[in-house]
TrEMBL record:
Organism whose genome encodes this protein: Tetrahymena thermophila (strain SB210)
Gene3D superfamilies per UniProt: alpha/beta hydrolase
EC number: 3.4.16.-
An annotated GO BP: proteolysis
Protein name, as recorded: Carboxypeptidase
GO MF annotation: an example: serine-type carboxypeptidase activity
Length: 489
């Protein structure tokens, strides 16, 4: 029995080694493309652990004489052949930050393979060792995610804006500083994804809109700003990509509203006493004052995080108050997974062929955070949200009830601030219903017309990580509702 187990481990290690070596053999960007706008490319990936088509690559963002590009990993719906992928809805997943990699969503939330570390001293070893050299199979394992969104749908995890995760920014000044620039670069990249000769979805531009797979854009946190901005750009350009719906989870879409909800949430969950609550209100007011002061806007993000620390004297995980520790371990595991030189995991996207060969993968990129520091507390996305609702786009808002960084009480408050959607009052007065699968209750749903609000029980800031089954059910409801709507028009 023991010899059989050893042989199985040996076979598994060989399979993983072959996988990463094959990825290393597939160039993502050619040397000839260094100074041209012909850098978009999509390559097949041989991933033994997944029974479906996997691709990875780069997408040009349209900056002249620049190699700045968005990196991605794409999973075709499980069990589907290449020619069948166009018959399946496509989901784009974006994490937030700003500057945080969507590969966190891939390997810890909704992707087909959940990355786990096998070493209890993993984090401590990583922090005390540079460079880190690991034996991959002793450190990591892939766990099949039975609630993966790729079981039934195509999904692409895009690191954006440029400079984030596996994406690349040739110059810091090319990194977006506002949502209009984010949308402009992403829209260009999306055209590359569909229409270039080397792209994953090479569709002839003359084809009608029905020939594009139905598109759904989902994400969490700061992606709550990205997604309405990108969706507005798509709709204004005629919706050639067949966008059906967007979903934003624990969305940092209305910073001023969210800021006002945090102290009361912390107090009601016994994280603050009355004196600390008052101090938290004062710290919140300092952040609010900085938002409208041109001389302080640059530091409003720093003031915000100082306010968060002050509102968390017990050092709970502000992303899930039921935990004492944050997501440091998973973050470092992800960084090691991409940067481990012994097994060539950095080579997944052939980073050494880019001009900056020393670029290392980080879960969150400080350059992007710096570039978008003023945008961080800017409240300009509610107008975009209004616009999309009035255009009839289906929108899903969802929030975990254990999230302190974006309390579950915030969405209903910023929905009240929607001034131009003619159904705001009807939505607010609509019935809140229990959300159940069988006998299991996942939370509540509030719906009217093309807006839905889900509150998920026992979930924090990363809902699909804490409640995978609930997140998948939410997605399926959204897709079915949107497709039925368009079929009946």
């Amino acid at each position: 029995m023991q010899s059989n187990i050893k042989q199985q481990l040996k076979d598994d290690e060989a399979n993983h080694s072959r996988y990463f070596l094959k990825l290393m053999d597939q160039p993502i960007i050619s040397n000839q493309a260094t100074k041209k706008n012909k850098i978009s490319v999509c390559k097949n990936v041989d991933l033994p652990d997944y029974q479906g088509i996997v691709k990875s690559g780069l997408l040009d963002v349209g900056i002249t004489n620049s190699t700045s590009s968005l990196g991605f990993i794409f999973y075709g719906a499980k069990g589907r052949k290449e020619e069948e992928l166009f018959q399946v809805p496509l989901i784009i997943w974006l994490n937030g930050g700003p500057g945080c990699s969507s590969q966190y969503g891939n390997f810890f939330e909704i992707g087909p393979l959940i990355l786990e570390t096998n070493d209890e001293e993993d984090v401590e070893n990583y922090l005390n060792t540079e460079p880190f050299q690991s034996e991959f199979q002793k450190k990591y394992s892939f766990i099949q995610n039975k609630f993966s969104w790729s079981n039934d749908y195509n999904i692409i995890f895009i690191d954006q804006p440029i400079g984030t995760g596996i994406s690349y920014a040739e110059k810091d000044e090319e990194i977006p500083t506002n949502q209009d620039q984010v949308a402009e670069q992403f829209y260009y990249a999306l055209k590359e994804f569909y229409s270039t000769s080397l792209s994953c979805f090479n569709l002839n531009k003359s084809q009608l809109i029905e020939n594009y797979p139905p598109l759904f854009i989902f994400g969490e946190s700061y992606a709550g700003k990205y997604i309405p901005s990108i969706a507005q750009k798509i709709i204004k350009q005629g919706n050639i990509f067949n966008l059906k719906s967007i979903g934003i989870g624990d969305a940092f879409i209305a910073p001023e509203v969210i800021l006002k909800e945090i102290p009361q949430y912390a107090y009601e969950h016994n994280l603050l006493n009355e004196q600390q609550l008052q101090q938290s209100w004062e710290a919140a007011q300092e952040v609010l004052d900085s938002i409208n002061d041109p001389q302080k806007q640059q530091i409003s993000r720093l003031l915000y995080w100082r306010f968060i620390r002050q509102t968390n004297p017990n050092n709970v995980d502000v992303y899930n108050i039921s935990r004492k520790e944050g997501d440091l371990k998973s973050s470092l595991t992800l960084e090691k997974f991409f940067n481990d030189e012994q097994y060539g995991i950095r080579q997944i996207f052939n980073l050494k062929m880019l001009p900056n060969s020393e670029k290392k993968y980080t879960k969150c990129d400080s350059r992007v955070q710096k570039s978008m520091s003023i945008d961080f507390m800017r409240a300009d996305c509610l107008d975009r949200f209004d616009y999309l609702l009035n255009k009839g786009l289906d929108i899903v808002v969802y929030n975990g009830d254990l999230d302190m960084i974006v309390p579950y009480t915030a969405p209903i408050q910023w929905i009240k601030d929607l001034k131009n959607w003619k159904f705001t009052e009807q939505f607010l007065n609509s019935e809140t219903k229990s959300w159940q699968i069988g006998e299991q209750s996942f939370g509540t749903i509030k719906q009217f017309k093309n807006l839905s609000l889900y509150i998920i029980r026992q979930a924090g800031h990363m809902v699909p990580e804490d409640q995978r089954e609930a997140a998948l059910d939410l997605l399926k409801q959204t897709i079915q509702r949107s497709l039925n709507k368009y079929q009946n028009i």
